[in-house]
Amino acid sequence: MASLGLMLCLFSVLLLSLCQIPTAIEDERKVYIAYMGALPSKASYSPMSHHQNILQEVIESSSVEDSLVRSYGRSFNGFSAKLTESERDKLMGMEGVVSVFPNTVYKLLTTRSYEFMGLGDKSNHVPKVESNIIVGVIDGGIWPESKSFSDEGIGPIPKKWKGTCAGGTNFTCNRKVIGARHYVQDSARDKEPHGSHTASTAAGNKVKGVSVNGVAKGTARGAVPLGRIAIYRVCEPAGCNADGMLAAFDDAIADGVDVITISIGGGVTKVDIDPIAIGSFHAMLKGIVTTAAVGNDGSKPGKASNLAPWIISVAAGSTDRKFVTNVVNGEGKTIPGRSINDFDLKGKKYPLAYGKTASSNCTEELARGCASGCLNTVKGKIVVCDVPNDVMEQKAGGAVGTILHVTDVDTPGLGPIAVATLDDSNYEAFRSYVLSSPNPQGTILKSGTVKDNDAPIVASFSSRGPNTLFSDILKPDITAPGVNILAAYTPLAQTALPGQSVDYYFMTGTSMACPHVAGVAAYVKTLRPDWSASAVKSAIMTTAWAMNVSKNADAEFAYGSGYVNPSVAVEPGLVYEIAKEDYLKMLCSLDYSSKGISTLAGGSFTCSEKSKLTMRNLNYPAMTAKVSASSSSDITFSRTVTNVGEKGSTYKAKLSGNPKLSIKVEPETLYFKSPGEKKSFTVTVSGKSLAGISSIVSASLVWSDGLRNVRSPIVVYT
To answer: What is the pLDDT of residue 606?
Structure first.
């Protein structure tokens, strides 16, 4: 048929004008991102013109206008374009191009949480300064009509703001949501709930009386309720494109935000081809703190993402609010369960149907799990299932409730009918009753809340270290609330509540933990506006609550430095600062070229043996070393701390943790005559004490002046 079409086109000029023969070259074109580092300092430099000129040299067919997708030139240099593989290869070899990489699709990874962290209404807030803080949210948009984004009680927009409100049709900004941009679809409006949820968690205004049908009632708020929000929508249901994320960073930095929160991840890639690492590096150069989620890939080692040392990488943990949903059997025995159940069965007992016996057309294994199509006779009953599921099968069958066996109940959720989850021992006891009783009955009570004395615990879904990109840099950095966080929602989004649209709802994930730390960083900057991004990060890490290793098997690879403690982070006493040059020297030690590093940072940089800085000696607030199992060599960390407290301060070193590790600190005492003064020290771990290490051993160094405790984990692993 293609040959016949070609003959017809050649036969007639008229037909030729009507024919369109797609070329293989056009079909092969894909979007690639060309990252070109820092912007040149020349005042006459035009990024768009430069990018077009480059493409004119690269494009083999098609026009530059058809090829160029997006130009970055407000905060750093680069562009995205539709290219063939050969054009991409040609572009990679051109002067000034640091890296070329595909436009990868990334994925999106409360009324009590801030009170648990100690940042409640009685905390030290300075309204005038707080209202000058701007949090940039790179996410899936925002629902601007939410009460969390009301500008009630908020003054004029800060003069430093350089952004715009380009939210699209029927989108209006105010003194709270002061800026909006979108890089997908036609609006910055959040049609999925993710962006509204994260934005309100970081900097939402106070909203009293928030709950989900009476459950978890309280005041919803961000860490800086008077702070401003700038939204950058880069995500749609299909995912979040790398070129849009880079454009959002480019704009957010130039717009004048103070903190960026991005709850997006897409695996581990080198920093020069990772849009989040690239964008956050340039943000750091401007003093902007970037927080990012480590991901929700569970407890398998080495799955954490967003690993660059200039990012605050956030794990998810629990709070002290525990949702309890009890089950009562026909004999009146109460069995403790978990879930968030707002369905009130009013204590009425219903017949219990075990999945295995409620099916006549499925295998035993499928029936026990209440698999799709297996429940035949469950109308008006409570269904008992051996495995967790989405409950839709039970609802479709007319069940009034369901009781699920869930091995891990640290993240209970809501359902479309009454739901309770039971752990191993409680489920076995309940199922024994169901199987032994001739007429088993029971009910599910409405949820209540109790204090969880085991909190905080890292959630089972939260991705674990070690850092697979920078082996001697600890990741995650910090843990924050990420389980059943109640925050703003879009009424367009579906919930487990049948037929209901809601303004506030529970969500769980490291996506929810990340904006908590962004909010804390914003809070710290309200009281310490002159601090660098690394100083803010250090303060957050070194003042964290130490977490219990007996309750968190993966130790620092699960929780990093510990659980965020915002009220103390504003007065850390000492901070570990990292300059731009330190990061460049570290990249030099990892065999990045002098040319590439120079282009990345702008200016000239020569990578030599003298200029190299090992990961181990980067001035990081945590000390981490990967060693071979047979190693017996001593490990030495060199660090420098800056006094941000009073003059005449004396700090003494204290060591705690694994007694197997033999650790020496030199000197053991640091005396600071004045604020801003720096002091250096070394920490040496004896190689002999490392014998027999099979996975991870850790301890901690605390510098204490009697009032402040500056704690750094010391982690050694094989």
So the answer is: 87
